[in-house]
Amino acid sequence: MAMAREEVYQKVKDVLVDALGVDDDEISEEATLTGDLGAESIDFLDIVFRLEKTFSIKIPRGELFPESLVSNPEYVEGGRLTPKGLDTLKKAMPHADFTKFEKDPDVNQMSNLFTVKTIVNYLSTKMAA
Amino acid sequence: MRWIWIDKFTDFQSGVRATAIKNVTLAEEHLHDHFPAYPVMPASLIVEGMAQTAGILVGEARGFEEKVILAKVKQARFRREVRPGDQLQYDAEIENVTPEAAMTTGRVSVNGEPLAEIDIVFSHIDNNMSGLVFPEENFVFTEDFKSLLMNYNVSTSAAGTTS
């Protein structure tokens, strides 16, 4: 059943407040999970579990937060994603906003693709399906 | 010798839930410093007791193949103090296990009264930590830990034959 985007956002916000111990006024759609909200690797698993529970859905491993592509030499060159790597990542993450990242696909900036909005987009698509 | 913060399992349902008890005694040296003349079991050790109860439950669910490491305490709330002579009961339940991680929820009671809620995320470190390699040997589940479960199995099967 489709759920209004605003409702999805509110629920995601609650999940992040609980999972990351942040205040709800720290959360905006643009906030990055790692940079702004201080998420560490294990928090991503925690967040996925909580989202599954909250939305009563299954989130296959690597679908919301794709496994790192950086270990594939075809995809990375000199610390940046190659066009092929970028293309693969974009296909894997249709729910992320690449506008900024694709100008300079530095692998160290990849975590900035994981924003609150990325999660909301992902869930909105998933719930509509 | 590892420091072990549970005395024995009193219930163990593979992959589902486990219950362990811990008797608190003044023979534990740290209680004389925490605090002088007013011994109280440190809450951090109560978390450790839950981590051991739940960690063994999670480890056993996968045949002790995984190195199960406490990754995150999701929540820990305490309602009262624990003093020498008290008995703690740890009830842990598996919420979710995947190849990379496991989540548990837990309740602790003291002498039958609710004491704490402690929810934990465990990491199966060989499948995490992006490619770091750990020693082959399972340094988490040593004999010290496994013997706790062995003693439980021995006592339950012994109870089964006498009844």
Write structural notes for this entry:
Chain A has 129 residues and is mostly helical. Chain A has 2 domains: 1-60 and 114-129, ACP-like (Non-ribosomal Peptide Synthetase Peptidyl Carrier Protein, Chain A, Orthogonal Bundle); 66-111, no CATH class. Chain A is built from 4 helices and 2 strands, in the order ααββαα. Chain A has a two-stranded antiparallel sheet with strand order 1-2. The mean pLDDT of chain A is 91. Chain B is of the alpha+beta class and 163 residues long. Chain B has a single domain (8-145), classed as Hotdog Thioesterase (Thiol Ester Dehydrase, Chain A, Roll). Chain B contains 2 helices and 6 strands; from the N terminus they run ββαββββα. The longest helix of chain B has 20 residues, at 143-162. Chain B is globular and about 45 Å long. In chain B, 32% of the residues are buried. Chain A binds chain B through residues 18-19, 41-43, 45-46, 49, 61, 68, 71, and chain B through 71-72, 74, 95-96, 98-101, 103, 121, 123, 128-131.
Helical amount among residues of chain B, as a percent range?
10-25%
**Portion in beta strands of chain A:** under 5%
Number of strands of chain B: 6
Which CATH architecture of the largest domain in chain A would you pick? Orthogonal Bundle
CATH superfamily of the largest domain in chain A: ACP-like
CATH class of chain B: Alpha Beta
Mean pLDDT of chain A: 91
Query: Strand pairing plus helix content of chain A: what structural class?
Result: mainly alpha
Count, helices of chain B: 2
Distance between the termini of chain A: 8 Å
**The first-level CATH class name of the largest domain in chain A:** Mainly Alpha
Characterize the overall form of chain A.
Answer: globular
CATH architectural arrangement of chain B: Roll
Mean pLDDT score of chain B, rounded?
90
Q: Shape of chain B, please?
A: globular
Indicate the percent of residues in helices of chain A.
Answer: 40-55%
